[in-house]
From TrEMBL:
Residues 55-187 form the Superoxide dismutase copper/zinc binding domain. InterPro entries: SOD-like_Cu/Zn_dom_sf, SOD_Cu/Zn_/chaperone, SOD_Cu_Zn_dom. It comes from Brevundimonas alba. PANTHER family: SUPEROXIDE DISMUTASE CU-ZN -RELATED. This is Cu-Zn family superoxide dismutase. CDD domains: Cu-Zn_Superoxide_Dismutase (cd00305).
Length: 191
């Protein structure tokens, strides 16, 4: 039971200082949030507004969320907003990707630091170095590529897209945290 396991775990530091040896062997995971099958894979070819291939995003499903590795070149040095958009289309200027994935009801407002947010497509900013290169890994519990599990399913009928913006996302203001123009887009697809 959850209560008994928590009580034993809470007592561990005290028992450790008293020299006691405790073994927690109970495997009751009923209190864990929904989990996904691990290992599903996907990717997105990242393109700029001119249509040039500037990198890729690799998606790997974890048990409680999605790991996204971003490798992109050609950005202005500095911080850039990154979001998951609801439609798998990337026709420049990338408005065809629609808004963020945000399927819950009621819809959550934008912003990782918004007291009422975040929406499901919000991600941390990525940083482009002096040569305009981004090499980052981002984890989100709000999206998935597995057929079941926590988060919004990205392989729905109209797909989804990863979008990188011209500016930094302030993670609070509406509608996109001041992140500005969409400068890179990639349609996410099963690998």
């Amino acid at each position: 039971m959850r209560a008994s396991r928590l009580a034993r775990l809470a007592a561990l530091p005290l028992m450790a200082t008293l020299g006691a040896c405790v073994s927690v062997t109970e495997n009751d995971y009923s209190d864990r949030p929904e989990r996904a099958s691990v290992g599903d894979f996907g990717e997105a070819t990242l393109r700029n507004a001119a249509g040039a291939n500037v990198g890729r995003a690799i998606l790997t499903q974890g048990p409680t969320g999605l790991l996204i590795r971003i490798e992109a070149d050609g950005l202005t040095p500095g911080w850039h907003g990154a979001h998951i958009h609801a439609t798998g289309q990337c026709a420049a200027p990338f408005t065809s990707a629609g808004g963020h994935i945000n399927h819950g009801e009621p819809k959550a407002p934008h912003g990782l630091l918004n007291a009422q947010g975040p929406d499901d497509g919000d991600l941390p900013n990525v940083y482009a170095d002096a040569q305009g290169r981004v090499r980052a890994e981002i984890f989100t519990t709000e999206a998935r590529i597995a057929s079941s599990g926590p988060g919004q399913w990205l392989w729905d009928a109209d797909g989804s897209a990863l979008v990188i913006h011209a500016n930094m996302d302030d993670h609070t203001s509406q509608p996109i945290g001041g992140a500005g123009d969409r400068v890179i887009c990639g349609v996410m697809a099963a690998g």
